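Colleagues,

For the teaching module next term, I've prepared a clean inverse folding example: a structure given as tokens, and then the sequence designed for it. I'd like students to try predicting residues themselves before seeing the answer, so please don't circulate the second half yet.
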């Protein structure tokens, strides 16, 4: 590496750390300031652990984003371009299915989900089934790009299937499985999956080409988020007994060496499978120069270090604090609880690693038509509203479907009135926004509030489902952004036409020929 490359890398690292600091600081500042008030009575030790964890999150997000730029995104694009150029559609589909399966079964958050239902269904079977679901829907997403099929039509069909399965679960008295099933859609589109699958879609779409190449490059995450929900619902239909859940002992979390070893194993397994698959294609199809491979391997190291730091500190530092905040605020006032949920939701999305990958890719693909700032505002508002609505549901105790059915109807209805690229971006954003920080901070926060308001037995029915809400509301807010754009253009055109029609004939200058 020459001096220019080192300087460029150093500048990139500094930029990533700056962005990560701006992302994590709002969440940490809000929690630490409130910890000195009666609202959130954190001990001195808890403040220290939370502060250290915040610094760990900053380092983790910075290194992950750097690794995503150097390795995850290029790997996906190289594989998409190489397989599409080979002209072997069968090979492209087989690789897409295998990659969807391998990445999903190694996502750390999926193991946590499987552990919650091991009493009524085999956890290994669940993990494999969800992986197959993601693999199949990634295959369908690739077919959509190749044959240039309409995303909205596919989404409407599969959501119809999804809600039909939900009705069957309710009919069989297994409604407690619904929140967990919908949460699985957000859990499986994690920090490893998102940048790779998005880049794969971009590589294929830009190689296949067509008038709507930019639009076709989005939508893969949207479809891959549906597969796990349908898979868990299908398993739930055949599960015996009631789904039981025991609230974990959040007070036992600590920054221990044992915890980091577990996280390193989970992240290492995920990246190892992805790297192995990439190397197989490198020596059979891609044959990239060694210079490119070296950069990718360095990026994988950064990705590994960043994810380990992020997941370790999020689990050990943010999870117990999130639970305690939920317990504390639920004992004060419902309005304080709802207001904090709205506020923390608007800032917590800033710290989700994959959100920054999505926003950068959206701005690049749309040539600045949809900016990172607009995306972040839409996501922040959507996530804040979703958490507030989830807390209202916990307080009053009604079904998650009261939100999801009208929410998805509005989302799909908006898709007929906005540019299709906004629909594709919106449905991708739903899976991206519900990342690991949502699972390790927001979900424990909701569980803590539910334990106080409704008791331990109601946690599965009411606390679970918050991840699903976080995944749903961006569909509306980002498409609303597209609707605003359409209205603005039409109003501007209408105003210009009115000015032309109302022009005074006396102002027209005639030239003698």
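(Answer key — instructors only)
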């Amino acid at each position: 590496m020459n001096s220019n490359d080192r300087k460029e890398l150093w500048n990139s690292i500094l930029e990533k750390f700056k962005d990560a600091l701006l992302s994590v600081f709002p969440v940490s500042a809000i929690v630490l300031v409130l910890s000195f008030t009666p609202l959130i009575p954190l001990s001195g030790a808890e403040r220290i652990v939370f502060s250290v964890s915040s610094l760990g999150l900053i380092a983790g997000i910075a290194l992950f984003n750097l690794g995503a730029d150097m390795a995850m995104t290029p790997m996906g694009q190289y594989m998409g371009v190489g397989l599409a150029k080979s002209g072997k559609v069968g090979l492209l589909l087989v690789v897409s299915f295998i990659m969807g399966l391998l990445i999903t079964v190694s996502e750390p958050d999926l193991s946590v989900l499987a552990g919650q239902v091991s009493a009524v269904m085999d956890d290994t079977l669940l993990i494999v089934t969800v992986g197959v679901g993601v693999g199949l829907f990634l295959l369908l997403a690739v077919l959509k790009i190749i044959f240039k099929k309409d995303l909205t039509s596919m989404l409407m069909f599969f959501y119809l299937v999804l809600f039909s399965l939900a009705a069957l679960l309710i009919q069989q008295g297994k409604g407690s499985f619904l929140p967990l099933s919908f949460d699985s859609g957000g859990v499986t589109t994690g920090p490893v999956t998102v940048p790779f699958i998005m880049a794969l879609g971009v590589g294929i779409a830009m190689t296949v080409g067509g008038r709507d190449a930019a639009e076709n490059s989005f939508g893969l995450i949207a479809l891959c988020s549906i597969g796990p929900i349908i898979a868990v619902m299908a398993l739930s239909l055949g599960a015996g007994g009631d789904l039981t859940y025991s609230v974990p002992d959040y007070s036992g979390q600590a920054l221990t060496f044992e915890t980091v070893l577990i996280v390193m194993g989970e992240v290492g397994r995920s990246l190892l499978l992805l790297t192995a698959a990439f190397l197989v294609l490198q020596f059979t199809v891609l044959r990239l120069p060694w210079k490119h491979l070296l950069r990718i391997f360095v990026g994988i190291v950064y990705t590994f270090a960043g994810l380990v730091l992020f997941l370790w500190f999020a689990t050990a530092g943010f999870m117990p604090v999130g639970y305690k905040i939920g317990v504390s605020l639920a004992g004060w006032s419902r309005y304080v609880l709802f207001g904090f949920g709205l506020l923390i939701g608007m800032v917590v999305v800033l710290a989700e690693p994959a959100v920054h990958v999505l926003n950068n890719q959206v701005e690049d693909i749309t040539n600045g038509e949809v900016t990172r700032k607009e995306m972040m505002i839409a996501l922040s508002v959507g996530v804040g509203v979703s958490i507030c609505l989830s807390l209202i549901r916990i307080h009053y105790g009604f079904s998650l479907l009261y939100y999801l059915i009208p929410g998805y109807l509005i989302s799909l209805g908006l898709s007929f009135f906005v540019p299709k690229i906004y629909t594709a971006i919106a449905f991708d954003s739903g899976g991206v926004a519900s990342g690991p920080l949502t699972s390790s901070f927001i979900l424990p926060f909701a569980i803590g509030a539910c334990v106080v308001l409704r008791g331990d037995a109601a946690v599965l029915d009411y606390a679970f489902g918050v991840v699903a809400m976080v995944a749903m509301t961006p569909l509306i807010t980002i498409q609303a952004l597209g609707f605003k754009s359409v209205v603005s253009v039409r109003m501007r055109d209408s105003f210009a036409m009115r000015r032309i029609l109302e022009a005074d004939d006396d102002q027209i200058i005639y030239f003698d020929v």
